[in-house]
Amino acid sequence: MMSNAKFIYPHNTPTTKEAYCYRMIFERFFPQNSAILTVPGGPSVACSTAKAVEWDAQWSGNLDPSGRAALGVHLSAYEQEHLPATIMAGTSKKPRMIEVAAPGVAIES
């Protein structure tokens, strides 16, 4: 599969199996030549790239290019210390929904 990628996708050839899969899906939905020209190329700025490591050296130990294994990043969003105190205590007085009455409709014949 990957050995023929440069012949099947000469414009911004995918370099990973994941990118190849996404490219196949993209071209099923958008087979036009003009759509192919919108496919970006170049290095990613995912959590494992050199550019990302410039931001945070801790990311150099994680080589998953998709960022799915960004250690602790996704789960930390659910820790209670990140939530406002009113939400944690269940005392938020903000309305969650606004009730709106349906307009009256009269059908005359």
Keywords:
109 residues; mainly alpha; 6 helices
Short description:
With 109 residues, the chain is an all-alpha fold. It is built from 6 helices and no strands.
Describe the fold and architecture.
The protein is an all-alpha fold and 109 residues long. It has one domain (2-89). The protein is built from 6 helices and no strands. It has helices at 5-8, 17-29, 33-36, 50-55, 73-76, 85-89. The model has no long low-confidence stretch (mean pLDDT 72).
The biggest sheet amounts to: none
Secondary structure tally: strands = 0
Structural domain tally: 1
Radius of gyration: 24 Å
Overall pLDDT: 72
- Overall geometry: flat
Give the helix tally.
6
Structural class of the secondary elements? mainly alpha
Order of helices and strands: HHHHHH
Beta-strand portion reads: under 5%
Distance between the termini: 67 Å
What are the segments in which pLDDT stays under 50 over at least 5 consecutive residues? none
Note the topology.
Elements lengths: L4 H4 L8 H13 L3 H4 L13 H6 L17 H4 L8 H5 L20
